[in-house]
């Protein structure tokens, strides 16, 4: 059972390309983490300032470890967050009683 995080970002006007470039670097580094199963960056087709991240980890502890990495601290906290108007996180665990 994996642990999923969905982050919704709204960039400041004109900062979407800068944020996407930073997230490309972030995604590459995050995919190398031992507990990371997926790190995907999506951009809204109608509103380029709306960005969605889909992150999947083996477990919640792996996500916690991810947030402590130097690349998260430097890129997300240090560079991306100051370029956002808003940020929402949805942390999800699978529901075993509901199967596909």
UniProtKB/TrEMBL annotation:
Gene3D superfamilies referenced in this protein's UniProt entry, alphabetically: 3.30.70.100
ABM domain: residues covered: 3-98
Pfam families per record: ABM
Gene Ontology MF, one: catalytic activity
Listed PROSITE patterns: ABM
Protein name: ABM domain-containing protein
Origin species: Streptomyces sparsogenes DSM 40356
């Amino acid at each position: 059972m994996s642990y999923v995080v969905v982050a919704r970002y709204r960039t400041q006007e004109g900062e979407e390309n800068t944020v996407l470039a930073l997230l490309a670097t972030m995604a590459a580094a995050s995919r190398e983490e031992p507990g990371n199963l997926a790190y995907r960056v999506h951009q809204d087709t109608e509103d380029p300032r709306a960005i969605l991240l889909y992150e999947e980890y083996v477990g919640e502890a792996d996500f916690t470890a991810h947030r402590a990495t130097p690349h998260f601290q430097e890129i997300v906290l240090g560079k991306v967050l100051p370029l956002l108007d808003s940020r929402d996180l949805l942390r999800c665990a699978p529901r075993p009683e509901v199967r596909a």
